[in-house]
Give the backbone structure.
Amino acid sequence: MPTPSASTVRLLLSTCPDLPTADAIATTLVEERLAACVSRLPGMQSTYRWQGAVERAEEVLLLIKTTAGRQDALIARLQALHPYELPEAIAVEIRGGLTPYLDWVAEQTREDD
């Protein structure tokens, strides 16, 4: 059974074409309190089908920590900021973790009163 804190936290995955784009998106999401933390993993190799062709690209993976309540707004903002026609936005429900960290994620993404 997940803890109450865990059930509200989400890990959103997205890819970016380069580090400057990833950094700009990460900074904006944290500044706007849509994400508590965004980790950037450069050097990822992606292979995917796009418009009928198999493509390969080096990308930067974003690991975005947010809450269920902020998820939709975060995805909308990510889509607005992102240069891709169809940006990756996959949310994973957190089933457990260190409760103080999960509480911190919730606190950092709390909407201003």
